[in-house]
Amino acid sequence: MKFKKQNQHGAWAMVFMPLVIGMVAGGFHPAQLFYMAGWLMIFFMADHVLFFIKKRRKGECGYLKAAALFFVLSAALFIYPLMVDYRIFFFFLMMLPFGAVNVYFASIRNERNIFNDISAITIFALAGGGITFLNLHVLSWPVIFVIIISILFFTSTALFVKTMIREKKNPKYRIASYAYHGIIFIIMLSAHWILALAFLLSLVRAVALYGRGWKMKQIGILEIVHAVWMTTLVSVHITNFM
Description:
Elements: H1 9-26, H2 31-55, H3 62-77, H4 79-84, H5 89-107, H6 114-136, H7 141-164, H8 171-191, H9 193-208, H10 216-241
Helix pairs in contact: 1-2, 1-6, 1-7, 1-10, 2-3, 2-5, 2-6, 5-6, 6-7, 7-8, 7-9, 7-10, 8-9, 9-10
């Protein structure tokens, strides 16, 4: 059995931010703690499976054994949440087409493709929607809001990271990043000033840091700080105005 260490700092933000916002939006239920732990196990499972598919070398089956272990743990942890509301299972069914996209890009070893990023982002956003639904028991605006805000935020992160690392010399990505961040900020400003403030940091860092030559570790740490900023302000908005 082989275990893969997750060394991408930004990935941890993608795991936990939608869940935390979802718990704020839907209210707290003890089953959400099991949901969160189970989702972490699913994340580890998927990470090991995709790594195995990408490598495809003899002797790497240990990663599949580790994935099987994480699956069993996740299944056990989700027993209680499913007893509270079995319909959260449909959120996981909705993830499957996007998971298939991730499998495809892993098989061709092109995991940095923007479409692969957006597919993964959608999966994490749906997880946030599921944890909101777990306490509300209805597909209402808070559930939709958590999914949308998560997709918008992490798409901004994906574009920013690409302009800083792999596509830093590609003017098309720079223009796309600037345009995206500007449009999202205007939309949020028209919705509420707290949401605009939440996305202001996204806009500022996309413009101010472009071409600065930051290393991947520095960017990852920045995105964790950024996710905390976003989570805090979005939670304030949810608590006071939703």
